[in-house]
Write a structure and sequence with these properties.
Blueprint lengths: L4 H7 L1 H7 L12 E2 L10 E6 L10 H11 L3 E5 L3 E2 L18 E2 L2 H13 L5 E6 L10 H11 L4 E10 L13 H5 L2 H10 L3 E5 L11 H10 L5 E3 L13 H14 L3 E4 L3 H8 L2 H13 L4 E2 L4 E2 L6 H12 L7 H7 L3 H7 L7 E2 L1
Parallel strand pairs: 1-13, 2-3, 2-12, 3-6, 6-7, 7-8, 8-9, 9-10, 10-11
Antiparallel strand pairs: 4-5
């Protein structure tokens, strides 16, 4: 029914019927997506944490149910690489300043074990390595080899990993610096050879210094131009809410135009709350996405801690997808319907054309 048999399988027959219902006043092609009749929410969640910082997670089958009920057919299976101590009673690092949050393989093993045990066909999940300590990169290659040994061929993404995350600084987060970035070469070579995308959380700056950390991202892009780099949240954060949208877009657009392997991740409701919700800002961002439709992927940044439920996930998906409503057809197909995500992963699935 869809343009590609693999996509038909992944989306599921029920979703295909829903998405491809013909308009009342027209007879669209049976293999196209009717934006007037179909949901605006993204069918891809490229930024989804199946494991929390601490405490119990939403059970894996339940999380799969959330995706199924909301029409998400593809998702990145992130852990949380920087975990709270096992003995800690905290579930969220911001509630526990002073408690160290340290890189760990723990969540990657849990995710892989769940994936191997349940072997879900839909949604199609992409296992991601979230363990790397980018400030101390010497052990990353050995840990990749360990995951290869235990779960051969299963991890095809890396991230979200922290280059600089200001919110974690009270929890003894050790940001990477320029010298550290130069020492990434061995593991970046592996990612490049395997065509594995790397999602970096790299804050652009704060209200006091909006572009304080921009040189770090520039250095990554300069040193590793042939790696697929995904910039989580377009560099925005709770610490950066007063930077003019025009300045932010100009800064990011310069990087997008200079570095063809850079993709922007527009996950996290903070982007909506602080930027996209304002009509004037929203217009500027929509125009930017329409200018660069192939350079953006969507996501919720939902963290599946047990104190959350389906209604929370549904709301996060709706809010982070809200900007999709105003995208032109090309950008909607590439972003919301997943074409950019498929391209990043070098998979053959293909999004339907817009009716």
């Amino acid at each position: 029914m869809l343009r590609n048999a693999a996509l038909t399988t992944a989306f599921g027959a029920a979703l295909a019927v829903t998405l491809l219902a013909p308009a009342a006043d027209a007879a669209p092609s049976p293999d196209c997506f009717d934006r007037h009749k179909s949901p605006y929410t993204s069918v891809v969640d490229s930024h989804l944490h199946f494991q929390p910082f601490g405490g119990p997670a939403v059970p894996f089958p339940e999380m799969l149910g959330y995706l199924d009920k909301t029409g998400v057919r593809y998702a990145n299976m992130y852990g949380i690489g920087q975990t709270l101590p096992a003995a800690s009673t905290c579930t969220y690092y911001l509630n526990c300043p002073g408690t160290p949050v340290t890189p760990s393989l723990r969540n990657d093993f849990v995710n892989a074990a769940n994936y191997a045990a349940f072997k879900p066909k839909t949604p199609r999940l992409t296992l991601s390595m979230t363990f790397p300590d980018l400030a101390n990169p010497e052990g990353i290659v050995d840990r990749i080899k360990l995951l290869d040994q235990e779960y051969p061929g299963m991890f095809t993404w890396m991230g979200e990993v922290n280059l600089i995350k200001q919110a974690l600084l009270p929890n003894k987060h050790d940001p990477a610096d320029m010298k550290d970035i130069g020492r990434w070469a061995p593991f970046m070579k592996i990612l490049r050879e395997r065509s594995i995308p790397l999602t970096l959380h790299s804050d652009l700056g704060s209200d006091a210094e909006p572009t304080k950390y921009l040189p770090l991202m520039r250095e990554v892009l300069r040193r590793y131009p042939n790696n697929k780099i995904v910039w989580a949240h377009m560099g925005l954060s709770k610490e950066l809410k007063t930077m003019p949208a025009e300045q932010h877009i100009e800064t990011v657009e310069q990087l997008v135009e200079a570095h063809p392997n850079l993709t922007l991740d527009i996950s996290w409701r903070v982007l909506y709350d602080q930027y996209f919700k304002d009509p004037a800002n929203r217009k500027l961002y929509v125009e930017f996405f329409n200018r660069h439709p192939t350079r953006v992927i969507p996501g919720t940044d939902f963290v599946a801690s047990r104190d959350k439920n389906f209604e929370v996930y549904k709301e996060e998906l709706e809010i982070t997808s809200d900007v999709n409503k105003d995208l032109d057809d090309e950008a909607f197909r590439d972003i919301a319907l997943g074409q950019n995500y498929f391209r990043l992963l070098s998979i053959k699935d293909e999004a339907p054309e817009i009716c």
